[in-house]
Amino acid sequence: MKAKIFIKYKEGILDPQGTVTNKALKSIDIKGIDSIGIGKYIEMDFKKNINKNSAKAIAEDSCKKMLANPNTETYSFVIED
Amino acid sequence: MKFAIIIFPGSNCDYDAFYALKNIGYDVEFIWHKNRSLKNFDGILIPGGFSYGDYLRTGAIAKFSPIMKAVIEESKKGKIIIGICNGFQILIESGLLPGALINNSNIKFISKQVTLNIKSSNSIFTKHINCKQLKMPIAHRQGNYIASDKTLSELKNNDQILFEYANNPNGSILNIAGITNKKRNVLGMMPHPERASEGVLGSSDGKLIFESVLKNYV
Fold first, then answer.
1. Which residue on chain B is closest to A67 by alpha carbon?
2. Per-residue pLDDT tens digits for B21-45
3. Angle B14-24/B206-217 helices, nearest 10 degrees?
4. In chain A, pLDDT over 90 holds for what percent of residues?
5. Cβ B61–A66 below 8 Å, yes or no?
6. What residues in B contact A13, CB-CB < 8 Å?
7. How far apart, in Å, do the first and last CA atoms of chain B sit?
8. Which residues in A lie closer than 8 A to residue B61 (C-beta atoms)?
9. What domains lie within chain B, and their CATH numbers?
């Protein structure tokens, strides 16, 4: 069982990496991109005895307490077998 | 007046802070972050650096070190807490100060001497400073202060903004360089007063902040 956790900046939070990367893609002539946001991707592997509900609860608790900053970031995750 | 300087793995302004405080006449002691009590101190300084390598987010892991429970406990008693640079980031992550510090608007690490305007003298950190501007260095990548509109109006209404940049180097909203909490016993600032503690370093203005605290205590 594993959690795939995605953390990204809230809307309106300055994301210079995203802005610069978008400009760079434009400079190599890749067209059609409106904006780019760069965040974090975290993979969390659970111990064998953890079921899906516990995995959800652990991932949620981890995001809330440490992995994301509620002032600047939002998070989401999917649990996979 | 006895100050504790907290050391995390990755702190690197600890000796500068020790030197600056000691020279002014403070009793100073280093305290490793695994300790759990700060009862014997009158003031606590969290120095700059890269605690836990800035992994995840600046200050995000340091806030769970055992010593931070003691810092929060002592802050409630009204003890003086000063967080400089990474120390400011840790105080924010710990919830002792509001807002957030994000990437500088130009996405670069900025290391240079800046001029600060003293925005409020209504604090023990600024009360005894007899000038309106201070020169000291900044050295950070995530020093761009942001906060919700609600927090910003609280900061303004309660006169919690103590220092602002004369020329905004990093994009901080309202040019904020340093703030205090509502109780006015916790100071967080991105610029480094401990690196401006004598003329040979380019400025001795930083000393004035520590002297102000000491004068207030005496």
1. B56
2. 999 999 999 999 999 999 999 999 9
3. 50
4. 84
5. yes
6. 102, 146
7. 8
8. 66
9. 2-217 (3.40.50.880)
CATH architecture of A2-80: 2-Layer Sandwich (3.30)
Contacts of B37 (CB under 8 A, 6+ apart): B70
Backbone region of residue B99 per phi and psi (left: phi > 0; alpha: psi in -120 to 50; beta: other values): left
SS3 B172: coil
Average pLDDT over residues B154-178: 98
Where exactly are the structural domains of chain A? 2-80
User: The tokens 């101190």 sit on which residue?
Assistant: B41
- The dihedral of CA A21, A27, A29, A31: what is its sign? positive
For an interface test with B, which of A10, A11, A13, A14 has the most B Cβ atoms less than 10 Å from its Cβ?
Answer: A14
Tokens of B73: 């406990």
Q: Is the dihedral of CA B198, B97, A15, B175 positive or negative?
A: negative
C-alpha–C-alpha distance, residues B86 and B10, integer Å:
10
CA dist B69 to A14, A42, B2, B35, B42, Å? 31, 27, 19, 10, 16
Note the pLDDT tens digit of each residue in B130-151: 999 999 999 999 999 999 999 9
Distance CA B1, CA B85 (A): 23
> What is the per-residue pLDDT for B106?
87
Contact yes or no for B69/B36 (Cβ under 8 A): yes
Residue B194, pLDDT > 80, answer yes
Q: What ipTM does this complex have?
A: 0.80
Separation CA B170–CA B105 (nearest Å): 5
Which among A16, A17, A67 has CB closest to B105?
A: A16
Q: DSSP 3-state assignment of A26?
A: helix
